[in-house]
Design the sequence.
């Protein structure tokens, strides 16, 4: 690794307070505070080991907290982990600190912690806003709940807001995903990721509660993806990036795409130019 290489840091928190039926995530249900704290201690120990192995204060230009649900960790632990990162790595002034958020479980003290951590980009899981679809995927999430979370993210000073949507879920139709995409527009996100549902019950046993027959076929999935695309691009003015990402023209991702500077990331694309990604926690991490 070159001495002055910029670093992108990924932290994985593999816990949720429930499993969504569609979830293909690297996570499990854990509801014990002692487990969260034990994991946070190990995460810090791993960060310290890696920082020591580098043998200098690496230059960090981006941090991504993924999961699972990272904000399930106690507020004081989130703050402490971020503080250790800042102590052990030299953060660039404009470093992006991004975190994935489940609006249905975000507590007020975690919001305060996100401010203290200096989070700059929040990614909210939305998936679908139709109550019947939500019942079918085991995730009840009122539009108002998501809207409150989006407003709180802005109030915290997050300069960038991302939403995740999914098509290809049970009971979805072109009409229902069109309605969801239009509601998503009202949330004013800078970026929207639109994932095709990956049904892999042989790997994720809990997905077996969803029968194959209840899922839209390939052409219906394609039409749903096209319907969301139409709403985001034609009605919302978003720029389509690759297969599944959309960004406002003013967003760094759209600008990087226009300048052919966008690079593949672990869940889509990244605008950082770090040649090295360091992964921490119980998930696949790798060094290039
Ligand atoms: C690791 S999850 C974290 C999100 C956060 N815990 C939440 O629930 O809002 C990131 C995103 O992966 C997507 N995702 C999860 N399971 C998926 C699947 N089986 N197929 C496609 N996308 C999936 C969802 O859009 C989700 O918001
Ligand atoms: S979508 Fe979020 S809350 Fe649902 S199982 Fe995946 S990580 Fe957990």
Sequence:
């Amino acid at each position: 690794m070159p001495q002055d290489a910029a670093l992108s840091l990924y932290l994985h928190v593999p816990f949720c307070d429930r499993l969504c039926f569609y979830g293909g995530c690297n996570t499990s249900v854990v509801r014990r505070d002692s487990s969260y704290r034990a994991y946070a201690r190990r995460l810090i120990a791993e960060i310290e080991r890696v920082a020591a192995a580098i043998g200098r204060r690496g230059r960090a230009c981006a941090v991504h907290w993924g999961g699972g649900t990272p904000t399930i960790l106690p507020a004081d632990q989130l703050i402490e982990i971020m503080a250790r990162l800042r102590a052990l790595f030299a953060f660039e002034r404009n470093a992006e600190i991004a975190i994935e958020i489940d609006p249905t479980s975000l507590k007020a003290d975690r919001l305060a912690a996100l401010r203290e951590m200096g989070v700059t980009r929040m990614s909210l899981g939305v998936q679908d806003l139709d109550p019947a679809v939500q019942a079918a995927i085991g995730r009840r999430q009122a539009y108002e709940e998501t809207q409150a979370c989006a407003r709180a993210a802005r109030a915290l000073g997050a300069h960038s807001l991302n939403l995740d949507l999914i098509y290809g879920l049970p009971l979805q139709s072109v009409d229902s995903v069109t309605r969801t995409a239009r509601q998503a527009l009202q949330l004013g996100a800078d970026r929207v990721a639109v994932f095709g549902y990956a049904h892999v019950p042989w790997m994720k046993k809990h997905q077996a509660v969803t029968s194959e027959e209840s899922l839209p076929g390939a052409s219906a999935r394609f039409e749903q993806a096209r319907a969301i695309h139409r709403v985001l691009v034609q009605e919302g003015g978003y720029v389509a990036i690759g297969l599944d990402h959309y960004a406002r023209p003013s967003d760094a991702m759209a600008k990087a795409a226009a300048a052919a500077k966008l690079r593949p990331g672990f869940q889509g694309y990244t605008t950082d130019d770090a040649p090295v990604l360091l992964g921490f926690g119980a998930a696949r991490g790798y060094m290039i």
About this structure: The chain has one domain: 6-280. The domain at 6-280 is CATH 3.80.30.20 (pyruvate-formate lyase- activating enzyme). The CA atoms of residues 168 and 221 lie 5 Å apart. The two ends are 8 Å apart (CA to CA).
